[in-house]
Amino acid sequence: MVTLTDLGLANHTLDTMPLLASLRQACFSARAEVCIERARHVTAYLRDLADDNEPMEVRYAQAVAHYLTNKTPLFFDNNPLAGTTTSKRFGAPVYPELTGMTIWPELDTMSTREKNPQRLSRQEAEELNLGILPYWLKRNILERTRTEFGNPPGMRLFEKIVFFIASKAGAISHTVPCYQIALETGLNSIIAEAESHADALRQKGNLSAEERNQLAFYRAMPIALRGLIAYAQSLSRKAAELSALESNPARKANLAAMAEVCARVPAQPARSFREALNAIWLLQIGIHAENINMAISPGRLDQILYPYYQQDIAAGTLTEGEALELLGCFWLKLNDNTNLVPETGEELFGGAGTVPAVTLGGIDQQGEDAVNDLTYLMLRATELLKTRDPSVNARYHYEKNSSAYLARVAEVIANTKAVPALYNDLAAIRTLESQGVTTAHARDYAIIGCVELSASGRSYDASSSIMLNLVSALELALYNGKRPVTGDEQIGPQTGTPDSFAGFNDFWQAFTTQLGWLIGQAIELNEQMGRMHQKYLPSPLLSALFEGPMKKGRDLVFGGALYNSSGATHIGFADTVDSLNGIEQAVFTDKKYSLPAIMKALENNFEGEAQLHAWLVNRTPKFGSDHPVARKNSKNLVEFLFDTYQDHVNYRGGRYRPAYWTMTNHAGQGKLCGALPNGRKAHRVFASGITPVSHAALNLAACLNAVAGIDSRHIPGGVAFNLKYPTLRTEEEREKFSQAIEAYFRTGGLHIQFNIMGYEMLLDAKAHPDDYPELLVRVSGYSAYFKDLNEAMQDEIITRTAYELDAGNAVPFPQSARAMLPTETAPSAPRRPTLLPPKKPQTRNPLLDPLMGRFQTCLENGVADTFLETLLRLMSLALLFDHDFRRNIEGFSGRYLFLSKDGGVTAGALFENSHLEVLSGAVANPDITILFKDGRALMDYLLTPKPDILGSMLRQEVSLNGNLNYLYKFAYMARRLQLMATGQT
Amino acid sequence: MKQQLPLIFNIHRMAMDDGPGLRSTVFLKGCPLACDWCHNPEAMRPEAEVAFFPKLCIGCGACREACPDGAIDLQGTERLIRARCTGCGRCAEACPATALRRVGTHYPVADLVDLLLRDKIFHQVSGGGVTFSGGEPTLHLNYLEAALTALSRKGIPTAIQTCGHFSPEAFAARILPLVDLVFFDLKIRDSEEHARFTGCDNRLILDTFRRLNREAREKIIPRIPLVPGRTATRDNLRALATFLKEQGHTRCDLLSYNPGSIEKHRAIGMMPPSDLPETLMNREEEEGLRDFFIRELAGEEVSRPEKFFPAGRETRGNFKPRQGGEPCRSISIMR
Q: Domain coordinates of chain A in residue numbers?
């Protein structure tokens, strides 16, 4: 219910809430630090303490509980909500089961890298290198899958990066848990319920296999939950201790209050707004102890917290201002952690937060207006703080929600320039219903992470399972099963040479054959990885916070939730549709150019083909216009994907759901892709999400109609539609803005989000990042600070079409910056990255000096003919003579095979018994094979502090086959030698 | 058939400036006046013509191959030899860069209405509709009547923008009952000055204004384009205010000067007047003129959409602009 007289809450500002202002300041100035606390405890438990006879479900719960019980209770600031995700003020936690291994090569350098550095102390790097990561060499999900399924073909495809990303190697996470039960009944009662189930099974005796699994699950859940309660208790004790020592009365009282809150929740039911909010925060922390920090989304907080708010307000124990401040503190708490990102990840995903999504407004389970005072308080918190997390989503039901609500959302978008994103309740609910969700549950949907729809707390959606590059299927069709970036290797089936297509339907057949084949590969690998999650990474704690698992006696990863699905999102949608349009129109309808002629132009990146290029850019149909060919091809592609995915049932018994959101992958994947028949030049970004190609859709009404015209039931995973307006200043403009949203929703549009910024401002922000330290932008699902994005992604956001609201037309892109457009030739990147600047040599053992000298010469001069030989010989000597260095291989055995692509060099490295044996011939059964173009390529690959990974892939300099963790370990040792050789240790 | 259809040179969709709400605006080609500041100079002539935008040209020469009349000069900065050009548009069809564009397309009424109805929801949610502009839409009375009739059957609110240079009888009988609003441009009060800058004196325009005003004053919204050295003088504004007061009008819209027409003049081979500024009016100067005019009129300016419809008056369509706080009721969705 709405009782506020001023929906904008204008009386409450950062000036009236100094605590919030200071916490916000601290949040913006915090620098990321790697946190190894969880990795340390979980690894130690599984390695040293666990009883291997116990089922994995129980062992993993014990490991999580071991961590939570030993987790340090920390109070970094005056935030009234107790608990921290990590042991650092702004921490990037290491999950070695998943992505953690990828930072191994960078342990010594990630603190100082140029873009978004993540600090790691020398001591903690050492602990990771010698203590933690070695345990996971063969045990993270990626390598478990490889071993279990014999290095399957899907894995080889995934590792080429340019076809699809099998996200389960990095996470399932992406979920909206059900917090109500824990708030209302407390974890103690959930524990009691699970234990009574366990007791019942024990008494029954003579259990079936299924019942044994149930028993394991019912035993595991209380173990994990007790771990979380133990953490709350240690927070409570520590707060009481600190309170006793504190002299500042406000701080003393705050600590005492936290001691009281944490003594109670989440074990027992929450009694107040503050207890409820702190309980949710502790549950978030608990989930992060078990699941990697990606898109763990709190969901409909304005609904979940409302009873507590209402009760406290009625009792006079809480004011709206206090509630707003607490919510702001919670928003900032959600910003206390970030993803651990290696350098390559920076290029592909840079700038993302952890994207915990909060969902506001819409209707309730009975179908009535659910907007209440808390909705507006949360909008105000979002407006005042302008932080990248949480990702705030506003649901809008145009029949039930008031226009005052929409107007207020529009105002917040105008003031933050980016958030919240908007969802059409009618379309979203209809879509979930068509996926088999009941009406009441569909009405209670919330957003996961970027834009994915979820029946919150009831549906386990693994919404980021697959990220598939649609353009790669298009290139496979154009090049008869090959792609320029992967060279001469036959990747997909042979579907015909360019001169063999008699009509557009033939080409469409070839394209969908490639696409269907690729989807099959991606799904097979996802299923394999899903099985590994079941076997090695269960989620007993998260399962306690869901509807379904308790009743079924089954963990979420085994299909315990009420509903199940897997999400597959797609990169390059608009570029693919426009390329299909271009081929259909120019080749087959107008017969203006032959497909071989277009192919020749593509291979030359349109060099010398200005006329053909201009024709494709300007005269062929574009997605985002009314053109019937564009509408047909977009519809056919969406329906093909829908039908293909829905045919597949996943390992949890749910269906695959196609989606269209891209994070920053459209920039990274674009860089690896050749020129396209829509006139996009080689190595340029793709359009984001389901957004039309920049400057291809010139009329706003047509653009909105085209996107809204895609039946939302065919895009059940969710879409990101990015729109940009230069300004939204006056009330009149905001009114038109709201009306355009309403019309788009009534036409059937599912999602829309905005950047309210013009080309000139963004160009200025790129040129002068220091002038825009807090500029928040909507990427393609999440929000990021503009300065954190890599250059390709910045350019993509700058060049997105801006529309003027008064005439509904695209604002022309400034002539002076035209070179940035995807239809212009990409500037050639510097061919070679630079190596570490040589410093004074400083070896610790004179026996190493001669080889160290040769190694330095390699590094300094870039002369790399003998690089591999020098490196291996130096490594082997250093292992003999340098005690510290030798610790790297104590207890380690590994077999490495190095092959140069011309066949000129074959070398093996065998690590065994703390000793390296270098062989000049082949090695049988290598753990990993490293195929490299030449010495320089290998040297760059292993040693460059800011490796040009994408460039190296484009030049096909290095390829790998085998257990990647072995390469990471080797690369770490090589870099260590490099640091020693250049005197930087 | 096509000969009887007027040429339409542009359709704005989701426009904000041509009446209440979000509107689709149809621009018809051909105008009886020839205002030297015209910001749609490509609309003056009723016949098809070709525009050239040199910045977009890639110099490929496809136009020369396509032209049947030898009217392309690749070396010339104007590209077209206007004397030879028949406006057939083949060069534009061949141009890959859209540097050459045919100005004007024929739309049978049914096609036009289909196209406009695509945006019906935008009109519905905003209390918007369709506006006919130009050029001068009343030059094509039959077409206008047919289109307005069809739109009115679909419940779409309509408006026209006119220079007023037409005979009022037929208009009052056939068009006026079909439209919700008439945006009536008044430019220069002095008849000789009017003739000097627009090619026609203003007697017919003022007569038409008086006549329509008697018939349906509530539908008429007078507008004055502010053009430096033409309309935007204190003398002229005072004289126009006097005229409007005589006619019982206390509300008038002043349109800011739009210098964007200069490039368009050049694109169709016309010389823009040398004394027209290429920049917007100075903000203070413009505000001063607006204040002055309002004082003279002792009335108010129409600048906010709700002012198009004074309290109590509804549009002929079923849609009202939504009020804050009121939940929006369901409207059937166009599929």
A: 1-39+123-175+296-533+560-828, 846-981
